[in-house]
Amino acid sequence: MNGRFAGQTVYLTGGGSGLGRALVARFVAEGAHVSVLDRSAEKNRVLAEIYGSAVVTTDGDVRDLAAHTAAVAKAVAHFGGLDVYIANAAIWDGNVSLLDLPVERVDAAFDEVFGINVKGALLGAKAAAPALVERQGAMIFTLSIAALRAGGGGPLYTSSKTAGIGLVRELAYELAPFVRVNGVCPAGMATDLRGPESLALGDTPLMANVDPDMMRSAYPLDFFPVPDDYVGPYLFLASRDSAVTTGTLIEADLGMSARGIRKVAGRAGT
Ligand SMILES: NC(=O)c1ccc[n+]([C@@H]2O[C@H](COP(=O)([O-])OP(=O)(O)OC[C@H]3O[C@@H](n4cnc5c(N)ncnc54)[C@H](O)[C@@H]3O)[C@@H](O)[C@H]2O)c1
């Protein structure tokens, strides 16, 4: 297979839908092999059907170290090694605020959101690190604009994504000079993103039906992205084009961090 990532292997969590699915499509198109860990056996089945021998899948939960170990072992056994780990699986909290968190559920909801978003990302790094050191590879953490500012979620999601910055910095420091570790902070997109089962939001695709015009109006770049629009920063951070870069974040936020106070000419809705 030709392409920029020919001969390379990516281990990706949450590749079954949304951003993860777009990452699988683009890395395979660029010549990579991909090992996916996702808790949805049905989504994994569809991936296997579409991508055939370019992708291997593991049904499992990111909170389970053994599931990561199995997915990394498959990558090495099928494709000969590992070059990139992308910690991407996560759940949202549906913007449930501190005051609205039910007293009887706050404990379980914290454990669930941090278990998937933080512990899940760390366990994947633990399982992937030895193989990545061997190949001088890269880790990329999918964070969120919620990692950097308030209001992209409630306190559970926001603090879990902010904890991801700590993982990026610490692992970048510990794993240098062998493995580069960076994060991507996307803004919104319509996906199958779910909420915590402990808040009865596990079956609700919270971002599937958001109003694109409402989302767009928050972004200076004035469009509501699809998952594929966010893939570019991952290709950059996975490649040697970013050889001088570790411990950093790419804000894929359509200019939200540069949003000013007054409205300017040329913006939709002004
Ligand atoms: N959708 C957005 O607006 C948005 C914005 C910023 C950041 N993000 C981040 O993008 C990433 C991908 O989310 P998405 O929006 O594509 O959602 P998604 O639900 O479409 O994709 C997430 C995938 O992860 C899997 N998954 C969830 N929990 C899991 C677990 N415990 N174990 C194994 N697999 C699990 C799901 O089955 C799904 O296939 C997440 O890290 C999310 O926080 C999303």
The ligands bound in this entry are:
nicotinamide-adenine-dinucleotide
CATH top-level class = Alpha Beta
Shape: globular
Number of domains: 1
Distance N to C terminus = 48 Å
- For the record, the CATH architecture stands as 3-Layer(aba) Sandwich
Tell me the β content. Answer: 5-15%
Tell me which oligomeric state these chains represent. single chain
What level of helicity do the residues show? 25-40%
**CATH topological fold name:** Rossmann fold
Give your account of this protein's structure:
- With 270 residues, the chain is α/β, with parallel strands linked by helices.
- The chain has a single domain (9-254), classed as Rossmann fold (3-Layer(aba) Sandwich), CATH 3.40.50.720.
- The protein has 7 helices and 7 strands; from the N terminus they run βαβαβαβαβαβααβ.
- It has helices at 18-29, 41-51, 65-79, 106-135, 155-175, 212-217, 231-238, and strands at residues 9-13, 33-38, 55-59, 84-87, 138-142, 180-186, 249-252.
- It has a 7-stranded parallel sheet, with helices on both faces.
- The chain is globular and about 50 Å long.
- The model has no long low-confidence stretch (mean pLDDT 96).
- Bound molecules: nicotinamide-adenine-dinucleotide (NAD).
